[in-house]
Write a structure and sequence with these properties.
The protein is mainly beta and about 250 residues long. Helix content is about 5%, strand content about 20%. The chain is elongated. About 25% of the residues are buried.
């Protein structure tokens, strides 16, 4: 029955007719549950022993040896391996040959007689795009005043794009360094790889500023071969465009 919280005896059933407070129903205290006695489970019966393998049963499969890791330093410059090509000296882990061990098949040939060339130039539109994207400061890196195109024949199994390294005695086939060169180029920025069928593919071994193709915003994935076609445009560094031409 409801009662006054201050203890007054009220005849009303909603508010105390003495002090006016709302009457509260009396709730009996909950009875604590009885403590349960801990129950102990019986241990499971022991499993029967595995019967011996009969002589006619096939032997268990052999354990596969652990896979060999792809890491390890480059044998020429000791740089840790990240993909097929060393990003410092261009060593090819697949053919186990250094950049200075390239085999040449003929002028401008990918191996079967097709003539390929690369047109290298400074692209003002690409430079302005890099400035607008905040990728470079025009006060620190200005567009070159001497913007002359040059042609480079694609020869042999691979063509390196980068800048010369005097300490390693290596000069890439497409050298973008030197006085007035592109300052945003890595030593081995990208590599053109000759493929069957008179075609070429592009690999970025992990350059600092990345490589894009045909004006796309996203750089190509490192250490992944990207097929190329005639008239494809490769963008590297702060302003460099490399246009491939076949025939």
């Amino acid at each position: 029955m409801p009662s006054c919280p201050t203890g007054h005896h009220s005849r009303a059933t909603d508010f105390c007719d003495v002090c006016g407070l709302r009457l509260q129903a009396h709730t009996p205290a909950p009875v604590p549950p009885q403590q349960r006695q801990p129950q102990y489970r019986q241990p499971p019966p022991p499993r029967p022993a595995t019967p011996p393998v009969s002589p006619s049963a096939p032997p268990p499969p052999a354990t596969r040896p652990p896979a060999t890791t792809r890491g390890g330093p480059c044998p020429e410059c000791k740089t840790p391996r990240a993909g097929r090509f060393c990003e410092e000296c261009g060593y090819d882990f697949a053919s186990q040959s250094g950049a200075h061990q390239r085999r040449h098949s003929g002028p401008g040939s990918s191996g079967s007689g097709a003539y390929w060339r690369a047109i290298v130039a400074a692209d003002p539109a690409y430079y302005q795009y890099m400035v607008d994207q905040g990728m470079l400061d025009p006060a620190q890196i200005s567009f070159p005043s001497n913007n002359q195109q040059r042609r480079v024949s694609l020869r042999g199994e691979r063509v390196h794009i980068g800048r010369r390294s005097a300490s390693r005695g290596f000069t890439p086939e497409i050298d973008l360094g030197g006085p007035g060169g592109d300052p945003a180029i890595s030593h081995i920025h990208a590599i053109l790889v000759a493929k069957p069928g008179d075609t070429w593919a592009l690999v970025d071994p992990g350059s600092t500023n990345g490589t894009t193709i045909n004006g796309t915003a996203n750089p190509i994935a490192p250490n992944v071969e990207v097929p190329l076609h005639s008239s494809d445009r490769i963008y590297v560094g702060a302003w460099t465009v490399i246009i491939l031409q076949k025939g």
